[in-house]
Amino acid sequence: MRPSGRQLNEMRAISIETGVTRHAEGSCLIRCGDTHVLCTASLEERVPPWMKGSGKGWVTAEYGMLPRSTHTRSRREAKNGQSGRTQEIQRLIGRALRAGVDMQALGERQITIDCDVIQADGGTRCASITGGWVALRLAVNKLMKAGKVTTDPIMDHVAAVSCGVYAGQTILDLDYPEDSEAAVDGNFILTGSGQLVEVQMSGEGTTFSRAQLNSLMDLAEEGTKALIEAQRAAIA
What we know:
Layout: E1 14-18, E2 26-32, E3 35-44, E4 58-65, H1 77-80, H2 84-98, H3 103-106, E5 110-119, H4 124-145, E6 158-166, E7 169-172, H5 176-179, E8 184-191, E9 196-203, H6 210-235
Parallel strand pairs: 4-5
Antiparallel strand pairs: 1-2, 2-3, 3-5, 6-7, 6-8, 8-9
Helix pairs in contact: 2-4, 4-6
C-alpha cells in the first residue's frame, strides 16, 4: 500500500556516521532513507547576554536546506532572509534538545547545533533532532573529558519521528510521497524514557479521531525506540 512497499509500522533504513567534520566539537551525518542531514555541535564559552551571571548554559539550533536538497533548486536563504518555515523548525530543534539537558550542569557556555539538509525526502526536522542529539552528546563528551563539567549535563536521549494517516491507514516515518498526500501529518518528539517533549499534528483538509491519534502515538513510541537504539550505537 505504501509507495515504498514498507509495512505500516516500518521505519526507513537508519544510519548515523559520527566525526564527519574536522573542527566541530561534535558532528554526525544522519541518514533516514533518502533524507540526509549533516549535524554539527559548536561549543562557545559564553551565553546569550540575557543569561550572563545565571550560572546556566544554553543549547540552541540553526537549520537550513541546501539549494539542491530537493527536486528543484531553491535559492540560498542567506541571500533572501530565513523563511518562516526555517525559523519555526530551528526553534523546534532547539526546544527539543534543551529538554534533554540540565542547563545548570552545563555551566555558562553555549552549544549551537547546526543542521544542514543535504538531501530531503520527508522528515527533515525529525532527522535534525535525532542527529542533533548525537552531535550534542559528542560535544558534551569532550567537555567532560577535559574536566570542564563535573556532572553529565545530558539527562536523556531525545529523538523525533513523523507519523501520519495515508490512504486511510496510520503509518510510521513518512517519506516525501506520503507526506505530500497525507490526510494527517504529525511530528512526535520523545525522550529515551518515553516522555513526550512535543507533538505537532494537523489534518490536511480533514479531521482525525482519538483512536487514530492513539495509533499514531503508539507508532511514534515504536519509531523513536529504534532511533534511540541507532543513537546509542553511534556514540558507543
